[in-house]
Specification:
By secondary structure, the chain is α/β, with parallel strands linked by helices. It contains 12 helices and 10 strands. Helix content is about 45%, strand content about 15%.
């Protein structure tokens, strides 16, 4: 089996800028990535290749896009909020493209000068991958029934009521149901399915899940510790068919962190010291 060729991270720098320009200057990671996929016309094989098949659900393309965003941020053309929204800076809004070699040289010089760079949410790729890999490993090690209870707790913490785990053979893969309340006025009956495994969920599995939920709920929610193929994502929002919301492994661990379910977050402040040489000369 030949190795799948995937563009290096620096090749994604300008597509990311172009994606943000198309999105109006800002976008979530998912929105940006999807635009880049369109711009680059990446194949299903490229999009589904995992960065580390033994440790997580992040694809190699997602991993390289994360590095590209980090370099562009350090170069000063991107910024991001704690809510995971990325945007072009004033500098980034004034340019159409960057020279990837110049960007890499700039960041390399920052490292050589030991310039402190504060890590923010979705910025420090290595640190983020470490905790996400560890958390996903803990989830994958759970007993199937315990995983279903975890999803039940996650949905309750997210605003669902009457959440029940109903998983049983012969039920079309339905693992549970619940009601999502919006603003105390609207409610939606939701059926969910949990897939605790590594690898990609196919479009066929999404269709099977839809077939099992039709007539039983307003919405479907498919949660996996792996990821979804490009065709599966298209199938989930296919015109004329009941929409199914998808949650992949990366989104799952982010939600566990956000809700502090098995995850403790400690904010650490760094002291930065700057020497004012002009002050000494002025005495």
């Amino acid at each position: 089996m030949s190795k799948i060729e995937i563009p290096p991270y620096d090749a994604f720098m300008n597509p990311i800028i172009h994606a943000l320009q198309t999105l109006g200057g800002s976008g979530t990671i998912e929105e940006i990535n999807n635009k880049v996929y369109e711009i680059y016309n990446l194949s299903n094989e490229q999009l589904e290749a995992l960065h580390d098949a033994e440790k997580g659900s992040q694809t190699e393309v997602e991993y390289r896009l994360a590095w590209a965003r980090t370099y562009l941020k350090k170069y000063g053309v991107l910024e991001n909020s704690s809510r995971g929204v990325w945007a072009l800076t004033a500098k980034g809004s004034q340019i159409d493209e960057v020279n990837p070699q110049h960007v890499k040289k700039f960041v390399r010089e920052l490292r050589e000068e030991n310039v402190p760079i504060t890590a923010t949410a979705n910025d420090n790729v290595e640190e983020e991958n470490t905790w996400k890999t560890e958390l996903l490993g803990a989830v994958l090690a759970m007993h199937p029934s315990a995983f279903e209870r975890l999803i039940q707790r996650l949905l309750r913490e997210s605003g669902f009521i009457q959440v029940e785990v109903t998983g049983r053979s012969g039920d079309g893969g339905i693992d549970g149901k619940g009601i999502m309340r919006l603003g105390g006025l609207l409610s939606f009956h939701v059926i969910f399915q949990c897939k605790r495994y590594q690898g990609s969920v196919s479009s066929g599995q999404v269709r099977d899940f839809r077939g099992a939920m039709v007539g039983r709920a307003d919405k479907g929610l498919l949660i996996t510790t792996g990821n979804f193929t490009k065709d599966a994502i298209k199938e989930a929002t296919r015109d004329g068919a009941p929409a199914i919301d998808l949650v992949d492994g990366d989104q799952l661990v982010d939600k566990l962190k956000e809700l502090s379910l098995g995850v403790k977050t400690q904010r650490i402040e760094y002291e930065q010291i700057t020497i004012d040489r002009d002050w000494f000369q002025s005495i």
